[in-house]
Amino acid sequence: ILAVESVTKHYRRGSERIVALTDLSFSIDAPEVVAIAGPSGSGKSTLLNLLARFDVPDSGEVRLDGQDLASISPAALDEFRNRKLGFVFQQFNLLPVLSALENVELALAPQALSRAQRRERAIAMLERVGMGYRLAHKPGELSGGQQQRVAIARALVGRPRFVIADEPTGNLDSKTAAEILQLISELNQTMQTTFVIATHDPRVMQLANSVIELADGQRIG
Amino acid sequence: ILAVESVTKHYRRGSERIVALTDLSFSIDAPEVVAIAGPSGSGKSTLLNLLARFDVPDSGEVRLDGQDLASISPAALDEFRNRKLGFVFQQFNLLPVLSALENVELALAPQALSRAQRRERAIAMLERVGMGYRLAHKPGELSGGQQQRVAIARALVGRPRFVIADEPTGNLDSKTAAEILQLISELNQTMQTTFVIATHDPRVMQLANSVIELADGQRIG
Ligand SMILES: Nc1ncnc2c1ncn2[C@@H]1O[C@H](COP(=O)(O)OP(=O)(O)OP(=O)(O)O)[C@@H](O)[C@H]1O
Ligand SMILES: Nc1ncnc2c1ncn2[C@@H]1O[C@H](COP(=O)(O)OP(=O)(O)OP(=O)(O)O)[C@@H](O)[C@H]1O
Ligand SMILES: [Mg+2]
Ligand SMILES: [Mg+2]
User: Fold this and answer.
1) How far is ligand 3, taken at its centre, from the CA of residue B108, in Å?
2) Backbone region of residue A26 per phi and psi (left: phi > 0; alpha: psi in -120 to 50; beta: other values)
3) Which residue of A has its CA nearest to B13?
4) Among candidates A2, A198, A190, A176, which has minimal Cα distance to A91?
5) Which residues contact A78 (CB under 8 A, 6 or more apart)?
6) How would you write the pLDDT of chain B (221 residues) with one tens digit per residue?
7) Pick from A60, A112, A80: nearest CA to A194
8) Considering only CA atoms, which of B97, B94, B5 is closest in space to residue B51?
9) CB distance A165 to A195 below 8 Å
């Protein structure tokens, strides 16, 4: 399903070279919930960005369903990002001029759905994350944890095969986090959705089928 | 030191009226570490914004050192915000065009210090939060937890009397969070700094001298 092979990634700042990931390898062979754990700065967000092809490794391969992401056509990459992938950003990245509902509906635009169907599904997913009472609010009119939940709803609403989530419970109290984890578990079991979740949250690691541990850009577990 | 009396705050959205805080009261009588706990959306950030006077209650009073914030002079309010108060924002709010070091040095601008002294103190505080190796990086070149730590350093570097922190450990792994809590405890004990920390983190609640619990904008504990 997903294979990362000997991936290395560095950033340049002028003459400085910062190695963010070194020779990282792992594979996911079944629709699982996989946690990526590690200290702040250990490379989790960098890894997630490579999985979604928001960025490109210096060396090594990222393969989805056996196909190297470096060699799929632009059309196939669009298809992957628009339909097969949901991404929850560490800083949410909601569109500030759209309401919560509109942000989530937008994620359904690539699908062959009527306007009424998009609205209905977006409302249902927002209710699943406890945000049914703030549909018309823009992100600036929401609390931090509310924005995070709208970002989660946006990633899940299209029922993608892969969901990549960057610290999705960081701003949530334990009851709300438990509801989100329940939702993740359910989608994984009923829809065979694969989840890759960067996290510091022990409850996420507990839910996960496997935990990949990073330290200073290297896999240590 | 700090008194909140019967504070009520609502937001308007068109014809909709959202009550964020209802008749909230508490007081801090000694330089303590106070945790504000409660579910996502319960009013924590709203309360913290009122304490710093970034926003104004509809009714009720916020008093610092016995003085009603509604009636202090603009000059005294500036003095309060620039010298007596440090604020850690839930979304960090670092200046994107400045480096980590420059962001922290800027917080010392109101003080009578030489350029060399500002630099020295900023470096020392960034090292205290484990960010001594990323001084020249801009926020966009830092991980989420690294940005959060720079925001914490910025709030603390001027040794303010009051520190208001909105979920300061949300993006930190347990080891890094423990270091930050150690720093908070130390400043509280050695410099008599009062901390008001909105949090979902049980470790923060454990460290706190008292915990104020919110639910739906009301104090329940
Ligand atoms: N654009 C950039 N330029 C230079 N260095 C960068 C850049 N982006 C990230 N880094 C560095 O790469 C390393 C890995 O960052 P990454 O964001 O992947 O960490 P992380 O594990 O997600 O951390 P956190 O838990 O704090 O979110 C960090 O040390 C960071 O400073
Ligand atoms: N500008 C606004 N307009 C309308 N409603 C708002 C606005 N800002 C916040 N709210 C609402 O006020 C309530 C309290 O928000 P607040 O940000 O204080 O919550 P919080 O306790 O900090 O939550 P979290 O833990 O998720 O950060 C929320 O229900 C939120 O939707
Ligand atoms: Mg990260
Ligand atoms: Mg908040």
Assistant:
1) 28
2) beta
3) A137
4) A198
5) none
6) 999 999 999 999 888 899 999 999 999 999 999 999 999 999 999 999 999 999 999 999 999 988 899 999 999 999 999 999 999 999 999 999 999 999 999 999 999 999 999 999 999 999 999 999 999 999 999 999 999 999 999 999 999 999 999 999 999 999 999 999 999 999 999 999 999 999 999 999 999 999 999 999 999 99
7) A80
8) B5
9) yes
Whether residue B143 and residue A40 make contact (CB cut-off 8 A), yes or no, is yes
Task: Decide if pLDDT at A13 tops 90.
Answer: no
CA A219 – CA A168 distance, rounded (Å): 21
CA distance B149 to B170: 11
Query: CB B173 to CB A38 under 8 A?
Result: yes
Please report the atom of ligand 2 found closest to the CA of residue A140.
1
Report the separation in Å between the CA atom of B54 and the middle of ligand 2, taken as the mean of its atom positions.
14
Collect all residues of chain B within an 8 Å Cβ-Cβ radius of residue A144: 40, 45, 90-91, 166-167, 170
